[in-house]
Amino acid sequence: MKKVALLLFLLATLFGTFAAGQYPPEWIQYVSDSYMYDIQSGKNDGNMSETDFKNHLLDMARTNLARQFEVGVRDAAELNKKSVDGRTSITYSSQTSFSTDINLKFAESKTAYDPVSGTGYAIAYIDRNAARDYYKNELDVICRKIDNAVASAGDYVDAGFNSKARAELEASLMQFGSADSSLLWLNIFGASGFELAGWQERLNTAERNIKKLLSKLQHATVIYLSCKADLFGKPYPALQNRLKGVLSKEGCSFTDNPAKADLAVEVSVAAREYNRLETGSNTLYFAYADAYISIDKKLVEKRVYEDNMSVKGGHTISYAEAAKAAFDKLAEKLGSIINQNI
Questions:
Q1: Cβ pair 83, 9 in contact under 8 A
Q2: Cα distance between residue 278 and residue 282, in whole Å
Q3: What is the reported pLDDT for 92?
Q4: For the segment 35-65, what is each residue's pLDDT rounded down to a tens digit?
Q5: Is 264 helix (H, G, I), strand (E, B) or coil?
Q6: What pLDDT score was predicted for residue 17?
Q7: Which of the residues in the chain have pLDDT under 50?
């Protein structure tokens, strides 16, 4: 084939012209299935300079090559991507735009001009194999980043830093959007269905694993709890125990080391007499539990919640018992607030 191309080139050179609508014979390697290409040719009837005329043809060739990407994206929209839960509800049709600037970076070009006839030629072409190798490398880098994130998250869990593990895993989920784009272009540049399915399965497996880990970590929040309760001048440790019980039902655990906590929670409560209601021989006592709460996320060292609140309780025995009833109600309310900020 190379000998034939060389012979044709010599003949064309000898006769000093190429027939209009054809192309220089040495370009024959670019007009195969291994390349995406567009060829433009024409006669310079506008008295343009040779350089300007060749650039004019090259601009048209590059534009037409870019249009092939539009067709490729539309065709690739038929390629379904299995979602993590097994359904095929996610498709590449969500890729509503394409970037010729990004993908024309693979494009190379050549021009030729016959000064005798004034005929010019331009070709813009992309080596499909080179483009596929680029996107396969991108996918490999993405997968390795995801694997590294999972490994780092495991190390954080082992060290007791669940919040850091969650942050690592949540950040890794952003990689899957880039992977979708790379898969799309890999398909456009002619990757086999078998190869695409292999990459997709690898990504789906990774995404499923990450979401399973995140689900487990959601119910493994470590809390540093400082709870001070004053019951009319006496400490009331039962409030802290009650609050821990409420949070434990949601899968939270506790640490005495703030550095190993996901959340640092400070609660300060004081009982306050309110009034009493006498009905015949019965007396109903009412008291308030006045509370302050702050919640800090230790990973980012950021206060995410701070408030004052009062909860009312009642009892037939005494103000102290009424305050205890208020403390119990308060524990439920505080537990709900803390869970909302996990």
A1: no
A2: 6
A3: 39
A4: 999 999 999 987 889 999 999 999 999 988 8
A5: strand
A6: 39
A7: 1-21, 79-100
Q: What's the rounded Cα separation, in Å, for the pair 132 and 136?
A: 6
- Residue pair 109/61 in contact (Cβ under 8 Å)? The answer is yes
In the prediction, which pLDDT does 295 show?
Answer: 92
CA neighbor of 332 nearest in space, from 256, 261, 244: 244
143, burial (CB in 10 Å: exposed 0-12, middle 13-18, buried 19+): middle
Q: What three-state secondary structure class fits 111? A: strand
The pLDDT, as a whole number, for residue 75 is 58
Tell me how far CA of residue 116 lies from CA of 18, 20, 54, 113, in angstroms.
10, 13, 15, 9
- β-pairing, 222-231 with 234-235? antiparallel
Question: 175 with 142: CB under 8 angstroms?
Answer: yes
Other C-beta atoms lying within 10 Å of the C-beta of residue 32: 10
Q: Where are the alpha helices (DSSP H) in the chain?
A: 2-15, 50-76, 100-103, 128-158, 162-172, 175-188, 193-218, 238-248, 319-340
Selection from 124, 125, 121 nearest residue 21 by Cα:
121
What residues contact 167, with CB distance under 8 A and at least 6 apart?
Answer: 299
Supply the pLDDT for residue 188: 85
The answer to whether the pTM exceeds 0.85 is no
Q: Please enumerate in sequence order all residues whose Cβ is within 8 A of that of 178, keeping only pairs 6 or more positions apart, or say none.
A: 138, 142
Q: Quickly tell me which residue has 């005495």 as its tokens.
A: 256
Angle at 249 between CA 247 and CA 252, to 5 degrees: 50
Angle at 63 between CA 60 and CA 127, to 5 degrees: 105
* Largest interatomic CA distance in the chain: 126
Type of residue at 64: N
Q: Are 298 and 320 in contact (CB under 8 A)?
A: no
CB atoms < 10 A from the CB of 99, how many?
Answer: 12
pLDDT in tens, 290-309: 999 999 988 778 889 999 99
Question: 305 and 337 in contact (C-beta within 8 Å)?
Answer: yes
